[in-house]
Design a protein that fits this description.
Distance between the termini of chain B: 72 Å
Radius of gyration of chain A: 13 Å
Shape of chain B: globular
Number of domains of chain B: 1
Helix content of chain B: 40-55%
CATH class of chain A: Alpha Beta
Bound molecules: cobalamin, guanosine-5'-diphosphate, magnesium ion
CATH topology of chain A: Rossmann fold
Radius of gyration of chain B: 21 Å
Number of domains of chain A: 1
Shape of chain A: globular
CATH superfamily of chain B: P-loop containing nucleotide triphosphate hydrolases
CATH architecture of chain A: 3-Layer(aba) Sandwich
CATH topology of chain B: Rossmann fold
Structural class of chain A: alpha/beta
Oligomer: heterodimer
Number of helices of chain B: 12
CATH class of chain B: Alpha Beta
Strand content of chain B: 5-15%
Order of helices and strands of chain B: HHEHEEEHEHEHHEHEHHHH
C-alpha cells in the first residue's frame, strides 16, 4: 500500500454527560506528539454533534472516551450513525472504563479497538497507523 | 435520532474537497478552478473575515458568537480554524471546536479545523483554497481564525476582506508597543472579555493610542461569552467589507497562487534538509568548491539573472 503523504486525522470525542476528560486530553496531546492531527471536541457532545464534526473534519478515525458506563448504548449508536452518514471507511475506536465482558458486543457493532486504563500512547498510535484508511 | 445522512452529504462533499486541496498539485488546482467557476456562475460574493490575536484572546469564541448572530439573520456561515502543526512530530492539536457549538442539523453552518502542516509561515497553505471551496459551497460569511504570530498576520491580512484583531483585557499597552505591524493592516480591533475587569481600561488605552493615526482601525469592546456588542461588531464588519465585489475572490486567488509557490519552495527546502544535500552544499561552498549561485540552481532550480 502507498505511504500516506498527509497526517492521520483523529477526532477525540467525549459523548454524553461524562465529565472525565483527563484520559481524552492525555490521548489528544500524545497523539499530536506521534504525528497525528487531533481534533478535540470538548465535553458533553451529542452523538449527532460528533457525527457532524467527524464529517466536517473529514477524519480518518473517531475515538470516543467513555468512563461513565454508558458505552454499551452510546458506541453502537455512534458507529451506526457514522455509517448512515456515509463515513463507511472511518475507523471507530474507544477507551476509558469498558469492562472486558462488554467488548465482544461492541466489536460486533463496529468498534475496531478498545483501550482501557494503562494503555500507552504508542500502543494506540501503532493500532491507528495499522488500521486507519489509506489516502 | 441519528444524524440524517442526506443532510450531511453536502457538508461531506465540501469537507472532502478541502482534504483534497490540502495536497497541492494539478488535481487540487483543477478543483479550485471548478469552485471559482461555480461561484462566478452563481454570482457569489462571500465575505471573508480574518480573526487573529494571541492564544486565549477569544478568537474561536468570538467567531462562534458572530456566527450565531449572522446565522440568526439568515446568512450561511463557516468557520475555518487554523492552528500550527508541531515542527517536531508533524502532528497538531486542533482544539477550536471546543469553543464552537455544534449544529449537526444545520446545513447553513460549517466548521473545519486546519493544521498549518508544512507551511513555515503559519497561515496554512490551504487557507486560500479552502475559502474558495467554502464560498462555492454557498457560504456567505467565512471566518478564518489564525494565531497571531509574525508572518501569519500578513498572510491573513492578504487573504481576508476584513481583518479583525482580537485582544484580551490585558491588551492595549502592548498593542502599540509590540504590534505596530498588525495595527497597520487591522481593519478592526476588538477588545474581548468586556465582562471582565480591565477590559474597559484596555479599550480606553487602545483608543487614546490609536486616535493619533489616520486610517486607524475601528475599535470594539465585546464579550464573546456574554454576547455583548456582538451585533454591533458584525455591523462594523459588514460596513468595512461592503462593496468589495469580485475583488475579494481575485484576492483569494492571488493568495492561493502565492501559497502554491511557497508550498513548492517549502517542500524543496524540506527535501534538501532531509537528504543532507543542503548541508553538503553548504560545506562545499565554505570549502570553496561550489558557488552560491550554482548551488541555488542545483538545490532549488533557482536561476538568478545577473544584475544589469
Ligand atoms: C480522576 C477521576 C475522576 C475525576 C475526573 C477529573 C477529570 N477532569 O477527568 C473526578 C473527581 C472529577 C471524578 C468524578 C466522578 N467520577 Co471518577 N474517576 C476518576 C479515576 C480515579 C481516574 C480517571 C482518570 O483520569 N484516569 C487517568 C486517565 C489518563 O486514564 P483513562 O481516562 O482511563 O484513559 C486511559 C485509557 O482508558 C485510554 N483511553 C481513554 N479514553 C480513550 C479514548 C480513545 C479513543 C482511546 C484509543 C483510548 C482511551 O487511554 C488513556 C491513557 O491510558 C477513575 C478510576 C480509574 N482508576 O479509572 C474514576 C471513575 C472513572 N469515576 C467514577 C465515578 C463513578 C465518578 C463520579 C460519578 C463520582 C460521583 N459519584 O460523583 C463522578 C462523575 C463526574 C462526571 N461529571 O462525569 C467511576 C466510574 C464507574 C463506571 N464507569 O462504572 C470510576 C471508574 C471509579 C470507580 N472505580 O468507581 N472522577
Ligand atoms: N470571561 C470571558 N471569557 C471568554 C470570553 N471569550 C472567550 N473567553 C474564554 O477565553 C478562553 C479562550 O477562548 P478561545 O475562544 O479558545 O480563544 P482563542 O485561543 O483566541 O481562540 C476560553 O476559556 C473562553 O471561554 C469572554 O468574552 N469573556
Ligand atoms: Mg481558537
Amino acid at each position: 500500500m502507498a505511504e500516506r503523504t498527509t497526517p492521520i486525522r483523529v477526532l477525540i470525542a467525549k459523548p454524553g454527560l461524562d465529565g472525565h476528560d483527563r484520559g481524552a486530553k492525555v490521548l489528544a496531546r500524545g497523539l499530536r506528539d506521534e504525528g497525528f492531527e487531533v481534533i478535540y471536541t470538548g465535553l458533553r457532545r451529542t452523538l449527532d454533534a460528533i457525527v457532524a464534526a467527524a464529517i466536517e473534519e473529514d477524519v480518518d478515525v473517531v475515538g470516543c472516551s467513555i468512563l461513565s458506563g454508558a458505552h454499551a448504548t452510546l458506541l453502537p449508536k455512534l458507529a451506526a450513525s457514522l455509517r448512515a452518514s456515509g463515513a463507511t471507511d472511518v475507523l471507530v475506536v474507544a477507551g476509558g472504563i469498558i469492562p472486558e465482558a462488554d467488548r465482544p458486543e461492541l466489536e460486533q457493532a463496529g468498534i475496531s479497538g478498545i483501550f482501557g486504563p494503562g494503555t500507552t500512547i504508542a500502543e494506540v498510535a501503532t493500532f491507528l497507523r495499522a488500521n486507519a484508511r489509506r489516502r | 435520532m441519528p444524524a440524517d445522512a442526506k443532510h450531511l452529504a453536502a457538508r461531506r462533499e465540501l469537507a472532502q474537497g478541502i482534504s483534497a486541496v490540502e495536497r497541492p498539485g494539478p488535481a487540487a488546482n483543477q478543483r479550485i478552478q471548478e469552485a471559482l467557476a461555480a461561484s462566478t456562475a452563481d454570482a457569489r460574493n462571500a465575505l471573508v473575515v480574518g480573526l487573529t490575536g494571541a492564544p486565549g484572546a477569544g478568537k474561536s469564541s468570538l467567531a462562534a458568537a458572530l456566527a450565531d448572530v449572522a446565522r440568526a439573520g439568515g446568512r450561511r456561515v463557516a468557520i475555518l480554524a487554523i492552528d500550527p502543526s508541531s515542527h517536531e512530530s508533524g502532528g497538531a492539536l486542533l482544539g477550536d471546536r471546543v469553543r464552537i457549538d455544534e449544529h449537526p442539523d444545520d446545513d447553513g453552518r460549517f466548521t473545519r479545523s486546519i493544521a498549518t502542516r508544512g507551511s513555515g509561515r503559519s497561515l496554512a497553505h490551504v487557507a486560500a483554497a479552502a475559502t474558495i471551496l467554502v464560498e462555492a459551497a454557498g457560504f456567505d460569511l467565512i471566518f478564518v481564525e489564525t494565531v497571531g504570530a509574525g508572518q501569519a498576520e500578513i498572510g491573513i491580512a492578504r487573504l481576508a476582506d476584513v481583518l479583525l484583531v482580537v485582544e484580551g483585557p490585558e491588551g492595549g499597552d502592548e498593542v502599540q508597543a509590540m504590534k505596530a505591524g498588525i495595527l497597520e493592516v487591522a481593519d478592526i480591533v476588538a477588545v474581548n472579555k468586556s465582562d471582565r475587569p480591565g477590559a474597559q481600561a484596555a479599550f480606553d488605552r487602545l483608543r487614546s493610542g490609536l486616535a493619533l493615526g489616520a486610517g486607524a482601525p475601528e475599535l470594539a469592546l465585546v464579550s464573546a461569552t456574554a454576547g455583548a456588542g456582538i451585533s454591533e461588531l458584525l455591523a462594523t464588519i459588514d460596513d468595512v467589507g461592503a462593496g468589495r465585489g469580485v475583488r475579494g475572490r481575485i484576492r483569494r486567488v492571488e493568495a492561493h497562487l502565492v501559497a502554491a509557490a511557497e508550498s513548492h519552495v517549502d517542500a524543496q527546502v524540506r527535501e534538501a534538509r532531509a537528504s543532507g544535500a543542503l548541508t553538503t552544499r553548504a560545506e562545499q561552498i565554505v570549502a570553496g568548491t561550489q558557488s552560491l549561485t550554482g548551488s541555488l540552481t542545483a538545490l532549488f532550480g533557482i536561476s538568478e539573472t545577473p544584475d544589469a
